[in-house]
Design goal:
Helices cover 35% and strands 17% of the residues. By secondary structure, the protein is an alpha+beta fold. Bound molecules: flavin-adenine dinucleotide.
Length: 356
C-alpha cells in the first residue's frame, strides 16, 4: 500500500503517500473504510478470511432488579468515601464481580453489577440534600415553562409534598452532607460526578453490564445507501445469543444466592419471569457506544483481520487500532484498553521504524 485518498466536506480531495498507515476510525467506521476499499481488494482490504465486519460485540446492560438489604447492612456505593478513591484520589465506583474460577465453573460471561441509588424522584433515600436538589430542579423546570407552571406543579404535587417533608424532617442531619457536597464539588481539586445521597439505604437498584459471546453472525455490512462522499453506509446486524441471555440470568441467580447465604439481603424482581425481562432488554441493543470486534486480532490469519502487532494480515504497512481489534469484549468500558493498545502500537512503530 503506498497512498490513501482523503476527501473533505468542501469536495476537495488529496492523495497522501506514506511508508506506513494506521487506521483508527472506531469500531464501525474502521470496518466500513476497509470494506469500501473494494477497488483494491474485491471484498475489502483485510477481508481474506471473510471476518472483516464480523464478531461485532457491544456490552449488554440494564437494570432489572432491586437489591433489598437486611436491616443493619450498609452498602458502600458512594463516590464520596475514602475507600472509593484510587491512588491518585480519583473517585471510583464499586462493582460486584465473579472470580475467574466462578466464571469458569458456571460458564458465565464476564459480568459486573453496580448498586445504583433510586432515581431522584424517589423519597426512600430520606436525604434532605437529595430532596432539596429534587425540589430545586422541579422549581427550575416550572420556571422554564411559565405558562404551564401551575399545571406542571400540580402534576408533581404528591412528590413535592413528600420531598418537602423529608427536607424539613432531615434538615439538621443534612448539614454535614451539604458541606461534603459543596467541598467535593466546588472546592476540592477533583470534582465529584454529581450530588449524591449518602450510603445507608435499604433498597438499591441493580445495574448489570455483561460481555457478549463473539459471534460471526453479529456483523456490519455495506448497505445500499451512500453518504455525501458517495461511500456506502453501514448496516449493523447486532445479535444476542442464547449463551448471552443465559449468562445474565445465571449471574443474577448466583448473586441472589450469595446475598441470601451471607445474610446480607436478596434480589427482588416484581415483573414476572426474569428471563422474559432479559430477552426484552436485549431486543433493542443499546450498544453503550462500545463498538467492538469488527477487525478482530488472531495470530492465525484464517480467523481474523489483524495480527498481534495490529498489522492487517497480508498488508505489510497497514495497521488498525481501536475497539475493533478486540477479539472478546470483557465486561469493562473499553477506553483504557484502547489507549493501552494505541500506546503499544506507537512503541511498535517507533521501534521498527528505527530498524527500517
Ligand atoms: C457518550 C459516551 C460515553 C462513553 N463513556 C465511556 C466511558 O465512560 N468509559 C469508556 O471506556 N468508554 C466510554 N465510551 C466509549 C468510548 O468512547 C469508545 O469505546 C472509544 O472512544 C472507542 O475508541 P476508538 O479509538 O475505537 O474509536 P473513537 O474514539 O470513536 O475514534 C475514532 C475517530 O475516528 C474519527 N473518524 C471516524 N470515521 C472517520 C472518517 N471516515 N474519516 C476521518 N476520521 C474518522 C472519529 O471522528 C474519531 O475521532 C463512551 C462513548 C460515548 C459516545
Amino acid at each position: 500500500m503506498d497512498h490513501v485518498v482523503v476527501r473533505n466536506h468542501h469536495g476537495q480531495s488529496t492523495r497522501i503517500r506514506a511508508g506506513r498507515f494506521v487506521l483508527a476510525a472506531g469500531g464501525l467506521e474502521t470496518a466500513r473504510i476497509l470494506l469500501t476499499s473494494n477497488d483494491v481488494a474485491r471484498s475489502g482490504v483485510g477481508n481474506h478470511s471473510d471476518c472483516l465486519g464480523r464478531y461485532y460485540q457491544t456490552h449488554l446492560f440494564g437494570c432489572l432488579t432491586t437489591v433489598e438489604l437486611e436491616p443493619g447492612v450498609t452498602a458502600h456505593v458512594a463516590f464520596d468515601r475514602d475507600h472509593d478513591h484510587d491512588h491518585d484520589g480519583v473517585s471510583c465506583r464499586r462493582r460486584i464481580w465473579f472470580t475467574p474460577a466462578q466464571q469458569e465453573a458456571a460458564r458465565l460471561l464476564n459480568t459486573v453489577f453496580f448498586l445504583v441509588r433510586p432515581p431522584l424522584g424517589a423519597t426512600g433515600h430520606r436525604s434532605a440534600l437529595f430532596s432539596g436538589v429534587y425540589l430545586a430542579k422541579t422549581l427550575v423546570a416550572a420556571l422554564r415553562r411559565p405558562r404551564q407552571a401551575l399545571r406542571y406543579l400540580r402534576t408533581e404535587q404528591t412528590s413535592i409534598a413528600a420531598h418537602s417533608a423529608v427536607l424539613i424532617r432531615q434538615f439538621p442531619s443534612a448539614i454535614p452532607e451539604i458541606y461534603r457536597a459543596v467541598v467535593g464539588r466546588y472546592i476540592g481539586s477533583r470534582r465529584l460526578p454529581a450530588v449524591l445521597p449518602p450510603d445507608g439505604l435499604s433498597v438499591y437498584h441493580l445495574q448489570f453490564q455483561a460481555e457478549q459471546v463473539p459471534n460471526p453472525h453479529a456483523r456490519v455490512t455495506l448497505g445500499e445507501d451512500v453518504d455525501e462522499f458517495g461511500m456506502r453506509r453501514l448496516v449493523v446486524h447486532p445479535r444476542t445469543t442464547a449463551h448471552d441471555i443465559e449468562s445474565v440470568i445465571r449471574c443474577h441467580g448466583l448473586l441472589d444466592e450469595r446475598l441470601r447465604s451471607a445474610g446480607l439481603g436478596r434480589l427482588r424482581y416484581d415483573g414476572g419471569d426474569l428471563r422474559d425481562a432479559v430477552v426484552r432488554s436485549t431486543e433493542h441493543v443499546n450498544s453503550g457506544a462500545h463498538h467492538l470486534g469488527t477487525t478482530r486480532m488472531p495470530d492465525d490469519p484464517a480467523f481474523g483481520v489483524v495480527d498481534r502487532d495490529c498489522r492487517v494480515h497480508g498488508v505489510a504497512n497497514l495497521y488498525v487500532v481501536g475497539g475493533s481489534v478486540m477479539p472478546t469484549s470483557g465486561h469493562a468500558n473499553p477506553t483504557l484498553t484502547i489507549v493501552a493498545l494505541a500506546l503499544r502500537l506507537g512503541e511498535h512503530l517507533a521501534s521498527t521504524s528505527a530498524a527500517r
